Amino acid sequence: MSTTPSHSASHGAATQPWSGLRVVDEGGLCTAYATRLWAALGAEVVVLEPPGGHPYRQLPPFAPGTTAPEGSLWWASFGQNKRSVVAEANSELAVELRRRADVVLVEPGPDERRAVLERTPDNVLVAVTPFGLRGPRANWQGSDLVAWAASGLSYVTGFPDRPPVALAKLNFAAHVTAMVAVGGAMVALRARKATGGGQLVDVSMQQANAMLSPEAGVPLVLDDGVHRSRSGNRRTVSRPFGLYPCADGFVSIIIVQPAHWNNLAAWMAEATGMDAVLEPAFVDLATRWEASEFIDATTEMLTMPLTKHELFVEGQRRNIPITPVNTVADLAVDPHLEAAGFWREGDHPVVGPHRHPGAPFTGAEGWWHWSRAPLLDEHRHDVASRWDIPDTALA
Amino acid sequence: MDAGSRPFDGLRVVELSIAIAAPSCGRMLAYFGADVMKLESQQHPDVARLFGSAWARTPELAAVFTDTSPYLPEMNANKRSVGLNLKSPAALAAAKALIANADVFLTNYSTPAVTDLGLDADTLRALNPRLIYAALPAFGSDPDRPYYEFISWGPNQAPLVGLDEVTGFPDQEPAGVAAFAPPDYFAGLHAFFGLMTALEHRDRTGEGCWLDLSQFEITVSALGPYALDQQLSGEVVTRSGNRVGWYAPQGVYRCTGEDRWVAVTVQDDGAWRALAGVLDGSGALAADASLATMAGRHAAHDRLDELLGAWTATRSPEQAAAELQEAGVAAHAVHSPETQLTDLQLTEYGWYQARPSFRFPDGDLLGSCAMHLAGTPGRWDRGAPSMGEHTADALTEVAGLDAEAIGDLVDAGAAFLPTAPDLKLHRPYEHVLRFLGLQEDAR
Q1: Distance (Å) from the alpha carbon of A4 to chain B's nearest alpha carbon
Q2: Which residue, B339, B363, B396, sits at the end of a domain?
Q3: Which positions in chain A touch B214 (Cβ < 8 Å)?
Q4: Mean pLDDT computed over B13-34
């Protein structure tokens, strides 16, 4: 068991579902989100960092007054619960670590992909690439933005008179890919219980994010022959259906069910005096779509004087699906997250004390344990001794 | 394992689900061999069924309309459909007989809704202590939390969890993620991750567990770096078009053709030199010291966008991406649904497949699963089930009912079988699938 200060005494305790599992994470942006969760559930995740450090160590934003390699808030967040060992990819240390791991995750560069594809690994080897290990574009380069473009998600996101946009600033495509990569590793581990053997798991950013594309829609477009593109922040199916401005920002109002419409119409009539919205014909989605201008204008008469929080709470009290367009500042003081104990107190020798997201879901008692992101190479000797790495490999 | 066997062979899952979040998780389990039995009701069909298909809005097809939505194979391929009108006590008893013999109960009904039905976690875990009860309500299962009774579904989770605020251009209102619901799929992936963990937990302890997957917390957990930035620096992350603080230039640029675009990311200084060489054969751009670093290129981003946009404007997205990738710059066409269907990489991996189903015996289109296991691959055996297609089979094999008991349930309206079993359908685009080699020519 680890005695290093970055891990709580209970790390690896038998109560944790993945305790005893050894994972070597050589991935970059596309594995970190999910290996952080895996490590919090007991897997021993060793981040095998190149001498310059993990790519997330270089990404802004940084904690005030800090720099790489320890100050990046990406690293402080997604390096959590893991251990750090620095080694060149082809060093003896790297080879010995991989050999002892149950799972190795890699993001091979363009020139390395063919070799990975041809390997028959003894353990579970997860290879994450922009477009997959095989095929005519296997050696293409990628990014979060490129993944959204290639998976059909960008085309339908944005305003029709502006370029398509993505969630690139959140690295969201990378996090989706990470969940698919670790999910695939977990399936391979279940298979290993039956076969006793390892295998290669081939995961691409393009396909991981194409799993989010059904609504953007190839089968949909083929079926009804209606081309779909960007429609701004309201969907072209009915009204109200999307974002509406209010006193301090925006709220989302999405009405499909008749009961929800009736509740909203009653509120609109009450607040604006526009009794015309109570017309029974407006219960029909298509009728409201035809009367978009009127419905949108009346909706905005309701929303403009109120704050997003007022609209959220009073709307929900009236059983109307209204949600606020939240910022991270709103989420930091959100009463539900507070009551859920979602934010956890953390500390880090460089970043300092902070609150970080805790468990995204709950399972059995004692599953989750949290510890700070490791300093560069912090666990070199600790891991080497517990994994029985020969001294020669540490030279 | 035998050839053709899969990692989840023998795993039984009972799914009570709507739309995307839980179904997308159950579908991955079914891809790897789990027997996923989706409970379906005629009184309250899954909203994905209610969309139907535009061409099926005819009196002749009214009886099978709820089998026609193109969303169905996208969400429910490989699953079995068990028709039980759960408000009936006899149907509820049959559902519980399935769950008593299942490994997993997977639902994204709200907690009050499953409680009203008598399928809450306490009841089912008492019935089957080895059961893994996985619930994905919007705001979790704790009635003491402030939003417990609030209503939210896919499209208005994205604004709630902070995704819409950061989507769009800084000079405009948020574009939001309006056309699809990332939090739904993200929740489905976390449910899958949670179920794999719960199976491991059960292997070690012999005990089932209750996975409470609040969709709200799940997506907020991806905002960690910016949550820390807000606390420590007071910075509130907002939209920035397609620009990020660590690559420059990066953007989506107009190409030849109607509404056609290419996405480009200059991932490091080497890629910049490569791009500069492509844009300016004279070498002057590559030699400009002010652009040699990422910080310098950020400062000049507007000018670089103009240069790059002028270059892409004379090329198709495919040509622009190929030229840039050849030089070592990350780029790809922005796929529309039409171009995505014939994507070379997706085709290489058999992403779009036509699989037969009860209602579409010649094949129905589905997108695959991104987890490619070389040794124990998943596969798609069939498209989406017809409503009630497997009622008799599942109640016989899993719940242990005999034919007479099942007949009684059907006669009483507690269970149901497929409507119009002889009515078979064809998608209006089968010629496209044959052209692409996704479907055999049955003529």
Answers
A1: 24
A2: B339
A3: 340, 361
A4: 98
pTM of the model: 0.97
Instruction: Show residues of chain A in contact with B111, CB under 8 Å.
Output: none
- Mean pLDDT lowest among A3-12, A249-258, A265-274, B261-270: A3-12
Q: Which residues 244-263 on chain A approach chain B with CB closer than 8 angstroms?
A: 245, 250-254, 260
Tell me the pLDDT tens digit for each residue of B392-427: 999 999 999 999 999 999 999 999 999 999 999 999
Confidence class of residue A14 from pLDDT cuts 50, 70 and 90? low
Q: What is the tally of structural domains in chain B?
A: 2
Structural domain span for residue B276:
250-339
Copy the structure tokens of residue A321: 């699906």
Closest approach of A364 to chain B, Cα-based (Å)? 6
Half-sphere exposure of A262 (CA within 13 A, CB side): 4
Same structural domain for residues B21 and B114? yes
Those residues whose C-beta lies under 8 Å from the C-beta of residue B170, and which sit 6 or more positions away, are B238, B239, B240, B241
Would you tell me which residues 84-113 of chain A have a C-beta closer than 8 angstroms to some C-beta of chain B? none
Q: Which two tokens stand for residue A279?
A: 């017309």
Cβ atoms of A346 and A58 closer than 8 Å: no
Amino acid (1-letter code) at residue A154: S
In this prediction the ipTM stands at 0.98
List the single residue in A with minimal CA-CA distance to B374: A200
Buried b (16+ CB within 10 A) or exposed e, A121-153: bebbbbbbbbbbbbbebbbbbbbbbbbbbbbbb
Task: Give dist(CA A388, CA A383) in Å, integer.
Answer: 8
- Whether A3 shows a pLDDT value over 70: the answer reads no
